[in-house]
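Appendix C reproduces, verbatim, an entry submitted by the partner laboratory led by Prof. M.T., so that reviewers can inspect both the input and the predicted structure.
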Amino acid sequence: MPDTLEQEKPLKTSKKSRRPRPDEEMELMDHLDELRGRLLRSVAYVVVALILAWYWLYDSVSKALTAPMLQVAKEHHLKITFNYFHLTEPFFLQLQVSLFIALALASPFLLWEVWGFIAPGLHPHERRPFKIVFPMAIGLFALGCWLSYAILPPAFAWFLSYLPANVELRQRYPEYLIFVVKMCGAFGLGFELPVVLMFAGKIGLLRDTVMRKYWRQSVVLIMLAAAILTPSNDPLSMMLMATPMAGLYMGSIFLVKWVQ
């Protein structure tokens, strides 16, 4: 009996030792309060940007996105008209496009909130790469959207070359506008490849030597990703997206070596 009592005592003390200390509980609550505040501010950023996009930016953005198709129609003397086929389509189209504009406008502020939450837990030498990553992410996304918009006229010209003569194209406006928005978003996300690779190198999942060794296989994967990301799935758009992504991969080798 004494032996069994002596064996039970450590078990009871071990259970008590697993309970968090009051200071740990207070620290956890402080982190949760800070996270809640940053989430609320992030939602407020998106809402304000959505209101701005809905009332002031939608018309100009929709006209800019329609311009490539009208430019090709004018240059090739084609008759193209945009149409709606349901009374609710204009409202939901404006809502979707405005939400995309709002996320693009609010992204710097959202990244700032993310940085403000994780920065206190990092050492000074660990913060240095992230100070470059966040501006790089915004710049690369904008560059991808710009490149996508620049290749729209030749892509549309290639598609419309199969249109028979004296045939009018009646294009559904919501499908066209959402297609262009998806194309810009896909190129923007594809250009985030260096940021993803830098993060993988920072946490130890990837090394520059591995990237150098398997660069051929990586190029094949990039082409596959480009085929999946491009909404049109045509070879022209796929190659125009995969080529700069392959160049970004090669440049990311030096970035991964730096963050290691």
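Confidence is low (pLDDT under 50) at residues 4-9, 11-17. Additional entries are available on request from the coordinating office.
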